[in-house]
Amino acid sequence: MKLVVGISGASGVEMGARLLAILKRMEGMETHLVISDGAKTNFHEETQMDIADVEAIADYVYDDHDLGAKISSGSFCTDGMIVIPCSMKSLSNIATGNAGNLLARAADVCLKEGRKVVLVPREMPMSKIHLRNMYLAADAGCSIVPPMLTFYNDPKTLDDQVEHVIGKVLMQFGLKNEKFVPWDGTAKAPHR
Q1: What positions does the domain Flavoprotein occupy (predicted)?
Q2: Residues of the binding site
Q3: Which residues define the annotated binding site for dimethylallyl phosphate?
Q4: Which of 59, 77, 81, 114 is packed most tightly, with the most Cβ within 10 A?
């Protein structure tokens, strides 16, 4: 499988790095990474991670300003794209087809080619503009997977919450996160 991963300038860039690490362990997975300028700032502000270390996890890395990169063309076949986290700026660009940077262009290409695009929007509270853009993106074919807190799987740490979000994202592509704890029902069905 070949996936484009976009990390944009919303809070929660560590989720993008964690997703890349999980994808790296999957046999047959090829990742194409683009990190926005805002995300690079957030890596510095929110984490102890060096951008070079994050980029080293991916198989291929592109500059967000390189609109001539191979992921900017529909003739470069991928299985889709994940933008995690997805800033409201990136959401707006994707929802309206404003492909002024590589991250938005790669998403635009996936949509026009009928490939899956998963957006993990990070903002709270959301304005009517944010909600309208999410609707437009969903109407255009994107899956919207906000990083919502979970409680049914008895999380103990922030890592548990992040693993849950990544598990939900990967499910959109039929992939599994080994640390994802799914809902198991309110009562156990008897084994037959």
Answers
A1: 1-172
A2: 9-11, 36, 87-90, 122, 152, 168
A3: 152, 168
A4: 81
